[in-house]
Fold:
Amino acid sequence: LEYDVAEKIAEVNADVVDWKEDEEALLGYKKIKTNTDHVGYKLLTKRPHIFDPNGERDQDDVMHQYKNPEGSKEERLALFRAAFKCSSRSCEVYELEKGKEVEEIVFTLPDIESVYIGKTFSIDLFMENTVNEKRNVQIAVTLISLFYNGVRGHTIKKVSNTVEIGPKSKKQFKIEVKPEDYIGKLVEFSLLKTYILATV
Structure:
C-alpha cells in the first residue's frame, strides 16, 4: 500500500512542477512553475451499447467518479491530504512538513449510530486549536448514499467553508441535513457515508 496508493493518486490527480537548482532551498531545488490541471483531465472507458468506429460517441469520461472537479477546493484538499499521508518528500513539495511536527488542530467527529428516516440530523466536527496562534481550517464535507456492497449511490450534500479558530480555543462546525436533502436519494438499506477533508 505504501507505493500503490501514491501511484493511483498520481494517475488521476497530480501537479506537474518545474524546478530550478537552488543550493539554499530545502530540497536543493525551488519551484518555478506549477501546472495543477495537466494530470487527471480525462479518464475514458467504453460507453455501453454504443459502437462508433469513426467518432467518439462511444467514449465515456468517468473522471468525476474518481476525483472532485479540477481546481475546486475539494480537489485541492484531497491532494494535500494525500501528500500529507504519503511521504515526507511529498510534504516538502507542498510545504506541509510542519504539519507532521505537531498536531496543531485536534479533530473529533462523533459517530451517528442511527437516524429515523424523515428526521433532521446533523454532522458535527469539533476542532481544538492547541497552539498560541490563530489557525484557518479549510473544510470540505460530502455526504453520499451507499449501497450495501460499498458502491456509491447519490451525492446528498456537499459543503465547503473556511473556519478561523483562535489561539487555544475550540470550535464546532455543524451541518444540518434535512429530510428533503436525502429523501429520494437513499438506496437499498438506506446507508449513508460522510467524507470530511480538513486542511490547516
Observations:
- The beta strands are 16-21, 29-35, 44-46, 59-61, 105-108, 121-129, 135-146, 152-165, 170-177, 191-199.
